Amino acid sequence: LNRTLFKPINRILTEREKKGSGALAEAEDLERRVKAGGKQYSDVLRAARASGYKLMEERRSEELREREDSLGSLKANIEGRLIRERAALQSQSTEARNQFDALPLATKIRDQILKPLEKSGRVD
Known about the structure:
Mean pLDDT: 86
Distance between the termini: 154 Å
Largest sheet: none
Radius of gyration: 51 Å
Oligomer: single chain
Number of helices: 2
Strand content: under 5%
């Protein structure tokens, strides 16, 4: 019985066990490789995202620098124009004061306003 029945059955069971454990080992190896690939994918994705954020931040800071430079030159231009306009206004003001003669105006005021009041006797 041992030679004819149990030995072939035991051999078949042993082969099945080897195949089963081999398949299990192969499945575990495949699972390990998939996990490693997933981890590698996550790491590469994280690195790419960080690189993208860094590039965006560099571009943003460069744009801010350009904007600040532009604003600085615009402020300098406006300040220069403001100084020129103030000087022109001061010059015009000085010229107007120099050309203004108060004596004819005072005489006119006196003749039109104060003399009629003196004649009526109402000088307060």
